[in-house]
Design brief:
The protein is an alpha+beta fold and 365 residues long. It is 21% helix and 30% strand. It has a six-stranded antiparallel barrel with strand order 13-16-15-14-17-18. Helix 1 crosses helix 6. The longest helix is centred in the first third of the chain and has 13 residues. The C terminus is likely disordered.
Length: 365
C-alpha cells in the first residue's frame, strides 16, 4: 500500500486523503488542471467475459450492450420498486468492463453481481488492489493511468443528457457545464510515481474534500451521499446520465417509466447556498425547514472556493423552493437560500388518454 502520509500536510482518514493542508486552494488547482485528486473513497470492479456488456445491460438501468471501447457512461442497479441500490461509473476497454464505485458500496455490488451470473460467460472481480482511482481534469489525470490498449479513463458525462436520458433541471447553462471531470485507474506503482512527483513539487495533489466541493457545485448526485435506501433516480435528476428510458426490461423499469410518464417523484433534489457567517457546515441528515415545517434533509455539504458553504438536500415535492429556508445544526439554525434542481412538476411527460365525456340525453332512441 502506498503511504499517503508522505504527502506534505496530508490529512488521511481510514486510508482516504481528505486534504493536503489547503482544501480551498486544492479546489482551484483541481478545477484548473494543476492538481489531481487521490480518491481513496472509490473502488474498482472489473467484469470480463464475452457476455459482459449484454449481461450488465440486462440487469441495470443504462444501455450498455453496444458500449464502444473508451466510451464512458454510468448505470444504476435498482430494486423492484425502482429505488437506487447501487451506482457505477462504466467504461470498457474491449476486453474488460470497468466499474468505478463508491468504496462503501463495492462489496455489496460485487456480491450481487456474483449472484446474477447464472450460466453466462461473465467473471466479475474486485480490482481494488490492482488500481487506485485518481480524479481531475483529463489532461492532468491521463499521464498517470494504466493502459490495456486504451487508457483506463472514465470521463464523467454529467451534465450532458445521454441518448435515452431525460433532464428535469431547467436551468441554462447548467452549473455543471463547466466542470470537466475524469477518473483514471492508476496502478500502485503508478501512484507511487505520482506521489513522488507531488513531493518534488512537479504535480499538485488534492483530497476528497476538494473533489466533493466541486461535485456539489455541479449538482452532481453520488451513491455515498444522495442514495438513502429509497431514492428514485428521478429525484436526483439522474435520468440524464444513468438511465436509458427506451431500453429493454430490467429490474425497477416499471417504476421508472410510471413515475416519469404518469406521475411525479415524491421528493426532489435542491441546491442550497448556506449562510457562512458562523462557519458551520450541516451534517448529512440535518433537517431542512421552511418556516416551522420540516421539508427534507441535507444529503451533502461542502465549503466551495468561490461559492462558500453549499449543500444538496432532498425535500418533499411540494416544498416551497426556490426561496429562504433554514437548516438545523448542533450549533443552531443557519439560513439557506434554495435553488431548484428537480422542479415540482418533474415527471408526467406522457399525455394521459381521457375518456370522452358523455352527455345525458332524455327521450327515446
Amino acid at each position: 500500500m502506498v503511504d499517503l502520509g508522505r504527502i506534505p500536510g496530508a490529512v488521511v482518514d481510514d486510508g482516504v486523503l481528505q486534504h493536503a493542508g489547503s482544501p480551498l486552494a486544492e479546489q482551484r488547482a483541481l478545477s484548473s488542471g494543476r492538481a489531481v485528486a487521490v480518491l481513496g473513497d472509490r473502488r474498482v470492479i472489473a467484469v470480463t467475459g464475452e457476455d459482459r456488456l449484454s449481461w450488465l445491460d440486462s440487469i441495470s438501468s443504462q444501455e450498455l450492450r453496444a458500449l464502444e471501447p473508451g466510451r464512458s457512461t454510468e448505470t444504476l442497479v435498482l430494486d423492484p420498486q425502482g429505488r437506487v441500490e447501487h451506482a457505477a461509473s462504466v467504461f470498457d476497454d474491449g476486453e474488460t468492463t470497468w466499474l468505478i464505485v463508491d468504496a462503501a458500496d463495492a462489496e455489496a455490488l460485487l456480491a450481487w453481481l456474483m449472484r446474477m451470473r447464472f450460466r453466462l460467460r461473465v467473471a466479475p472481480r474486485d480490482a481494488g488492489d490492482e488500481f487506485v482511482v485518481v480524479g481531475g481534469v483529463a489532461d492532468a489525470v491521463t499521464p498517470w493511468v494504466g493502459h490495456t490498449g486504451v487508457p483506463l479513463l472514465w470521463r464523467d458525462p454529467w451534465p450532458q443528457v445521454a441518448v435515452g436520458g431525460w433532464s428535469y433541471a431547467v436551468v441554462d447553462p447548467h452549473p455543471g457545464g463547466d466542470r470537466s471531470w475524469t477518473e483514471g485507474l492508476v496502478t500502485p506503482g503508478g501512484l507511487d510515481g505520482l506521489l513522488a512527483a507531488v513531493t518534488s513539487g512537479e504535480v499538485g495533489v488534492a483530497g476528497s474534500v476538494a473533489a466533493e466541493a466541486l461535485r456539489l457545485a455541479a449538482w452532481r448526485p453520488r451513491w455515498a451521499t444522495e442514495v438513502d435506501g429509497r431514492l428514485l433516480p428521478h429525484e436526483a435528476d439522474w435520468l440524464r446520465t444513468a438511465v436509458h428510458l427506451d431500453k429493454g426490461c430490467y429490474r425497477g423499469q416499471e417504476t421508472v417509466a410510471k413515475v416519469h410518464n404518469l406521475g411525479h417523484p415524491p421528493r426532489r433534489l435542491i441546491f442550497l447556498q448556506l449562510d457562512g457567517s458562523e462557519s458551520v457546515l450541516p451534517e448529512r441528515g440535518a433537517e431542512v425547514r421552511a418556516g416551522g415545517d420540516a421539508i427534507g434533509e441535507i444529503t451533502s455539504a461542502a465549503l466551495h472556493f468561490e461559492d462558500g458553504p453549499i449543500a444538496l438536500a432532498l425535500v418533499k415535492r411540494a416544498a416551497p423552493v426556490p426561496g429562504d429556508l433554514t437548516v438545523e445544526t448542533p450549533e443552531g439554525e443557519i439560513a439557506a437560500r434554495a435553488e431548484t434542481i428537480v422542479p415540482p412538476d418533474a415527471g408526467r411527460t406522457a399525455a394521459i388518454p381521457r375518456m370522452p365525456r358523455l352527455s345525458r340525453r332524455t327521450g327515446s332512441g
